Amino acid sequence: MLAIVLTLLLGLLPSAPTATPVACSSAVLPDSLRRAATDSLVSVQCPGYPTLRVASVLFVGNNVTKEPVLRAELDFQEGDTLRAATFGKRLEANRRRVFNLQLFHQVLVQAVCRDGEVTILYSVQERWYTFPVPIFSLADRNFRSWLDRSDRWQRVDYGLHLVRRNFRGRNEQLLGNVQLGFNRKYEVFYEAPGYGRRRRVGLGAGLSYYRSHSLDYATVRDRLVNLRQENDFPIERQYASLGLRWRRTVQHLTALDVSYHREQVSDSVLYYNPSYYLHGARREYLELGLVSTLNQRNTFAYPLTGQYAQLALTYRTFLTPGIADILTLRGRYARYLALGGSFYYSIGTAAQVRLARSVGYADNRAFGYDVLVRGYDAYVIDGRHYGLVQQGLTYRLLDVGQLRLNGVRTTKFNTIPLVFYLNTFADVGYVRTPVPRPTNRLPNKLLASTGVALHLVTYYDWVFTLEYARTREREGGFFFRTQFPI
After folding, report:
1. Are 103 and 171 spatial neighbours (Cβ–Cβ below 8 Å)?
2. At residue 93, what are phi and psi to the nearest 5 degrees?
3. 337 touches 305 (CB < 8 A)
4. Do 319 and 336 form a contact (C-beta atoms < 8 A)?
5. CB-based contact 334:486 (threshold 8 Å)
6. What are the pLDDT digits (tens) for 221-251?
7. Where are the domains of the chain?
8. CATH H superfamily, domain 2-126
9. Element (H, E) at 313
């Protein structure tokens, strides 16, 4: 009976919650920064109680998502006793964890108290979880060069990229790629963050086969040099991986993976770069990877407060004779601060140390791939070790709120949050390599850049960034990205 009264107080429908209860935050990103005050409704209903007993925890709106997935994120359960003075903040911290599962457009929380006992209701609005994306791309540098070829229709890539999030309603992810044509790719990946009532131990697995008519085989003047073979495949890769996951909550995850890799390049690649793999055109290796992540950011897609830390250790042992084993240690830390008003500050650091007697070209990567000093997008910097510091000052320029699409009936797509941020940034990085190629000027040199950016944050965790950056070498340009830069 109390649950019915609570639902009426909130005025919510399970499939489309729209009310804004006391001590509750909308899933629109800026609202997640509101300070959680003591729940006034609970204070009025249960005055004078220093502690409150949790009588029941209820969930509505989770038509697909299984309830144990949500309960695993909470740091309380039925029967626990919570301090009344910090009750509102405790509810908000748990709401954020549920929201950062990235399964919902919106997560709301409210509580009703009677005789020192509280009933807590979490109301969620589920997303759309299946995304089939057609693949169609040209295998040439641009449309004009493709159009000029007589065999143009044989030089296209086509296929399907399919992602199923929240598979079986258990926050599992199933991903598949089937790409045919000029470049071939066949992949399937499965990720389960956790099994069981507390969702502590999970599993990850994957299979991948890839070959391409094109390969970047060297770095000259800090730019990639590409080899294209019309009737041959200069690169072929295949691997299989299996791993365990240990998870306390969505904020703390440790992954242990072991994988088998088999790779080969054509003789033409070795002709242009004999040290691409150090020895020969083929190699096999086993790789053991351990990654631990602590993610205490307010929102994972576009964080404004909190912190993030990640440590990764990878050991690669080669089954092919004559190639030295490689030990790689990577670390990353970022801090996000609210400065007051609409201003926010972020600083992030990243570093890598790679230990081996010698490495081939394929294993000698630093900046220009997953890690970047903004503004040097046209370049790649080879090396074993690197360090990077990034800073940003952000101003919330415009919060449009929820735009409703009248012609769309489903609540999974008919409201679009739009928030614009103005950002100014500065990056500093350094790559250490023992013997750089004479034509490459960026290794063993301090790299620095500054710039301004406009960020757009919208639903399904999409972040669009338009930047103008200026480097230490007085080069500049506009760059478009699809993720939060720090």
Report:
1. yes
2. -60, -40
3. yes
4. no
5. yes
6. 999 898 988 888 999 999 999 999 999 889 9
7. 2-126, 128-278, 299-307+318-486
8. membrane protein fhac (3.10.20.310)
9. strand 306-318
User: Residue 20 and residue 393: Cα distance in Å, rounded?
Assistant: 30
Is the CB of residue 118 less than 8 Å from the CB of residue 42? yes
pLDDT of res. 461:
84
Beta strands 51-60 and 117-126 are parallel
Asked whether 27 and 96 are in contact (CB, 8 A), the reply is: no
pLDDT at residue 34, as a whole number: 46
Sign of CA dihedral 215, 218, 223, 229: negative
Q: Collect all residues with Cβ–Cβ distance below 8 Å to 73 and sequence separation of at least 6.
A: 94, 97, 98, 101, 249, 250
What is the Cα gyration radius of the chain?
Answer: 26
User: Six-digit token pair at 112?
Assistant: 């009703």
Positions in the chain whose pLDDT score sits under 70 = 1-41, 43-44, 140-142, 144-145, 408, 411-413
Q: In this predicted structure, what is the pLDDT of residue 464?
A: 93
DSSP code, position 144:
H
* Residue 82 half-sphere exposure toward CB, CA atoms < 13 A: 27
Return the pLDDT at 24.
39
pTM of the predicted structure, to 2 decimals: 0.84
